[in-house]
């Protein structure tokens, strides 16, 4: 039976790219996102490539929905071996214009979402004495104008990663994080629209200030996640790997 990977926020973007890569690596994949119907393209793409995937509608901020989602995944796919906490949102604004709702939503999706999903996943992983968890931080953790909420959440993810690596290590569970730089997705295209430039211009500007002189694609993150959940990374835990073309050097 295939090992099972759960990827949150996997209907599109980095999550969909990661789910496709893990399916190609041989995992049966649960595509978790807010709207189950929106997961169809990601599931179909995996099936068309010969892989196994199911769509699971779940708001990662809702304790009951998360518990039900993991029960369903374990029942349908047989276990939970890998969890990629990837679901995310932006609500950018300078501090004086940032609403409490914008603060709360960003904290909730990134931090509470990762907490709730990991708490469910570890039940299966601790029992089987093995598991791999990859959280999603960001270069914005290091500070980003207009992103007080997001930066705090993404640095929080790094603290969560280190702490859970300590707690879960004795059970054979590795917990790491990836911190993407600029990756071409609907999230970065939406930011371009918000600041009033075309996606192409926005990408070109980002590439200019990146040592490797390009922006990233979802596959750039998926490649590193694939390594972190592989046996080759079995002695790596508590780490955050920046995958940003050198943007924050
Ligand atoms: N794109 C980048 O440049 C970049 C850079 C650094 C970090 N990241 C992080 O990578 C992750 C993926 O980003 P992306 O660019 O693919 O974004 P995206 O907006 O394209 O995809 C995010 C997905 O998360 C889902 N989602 C949002 N809230 C959810 C919730 N409460 N429950 C379940 N699913 C939810 C969305 O529906 C969407 O499908 C995010 O955590 C983001 O913060 C992205």
UniProtKB/TrEMBL annotation:
GO terms for molecular function: 3-oxoacyl-[acyl-carrier-protein] reductase (NADPH) activity. Keywords: Oxidoreductase. Its EC number is 1.1.1.100. SMART domains: PKS_KR (SM00822). Transmembrane segments: none annotated. It holds the Pfam family adh_short_C2. Residues 3-181 form the Ketoreductase domain. InterPro entries: KR_dom (IPR057326), NAD(P)-bd_dom_sf (IPR036291), Sc_DH/Rdtase_CS (IPR020904), SDR_fam (IPR002347). It is an enzyme of class 1 (oxidoreductase). Belongs to the short-chain dehydrogenases/reductases (SDR) family. NCBIfam families: PRK07231.1, PRK12826.1-2. This is 3-oxoacyl-ACP reductase FabG.
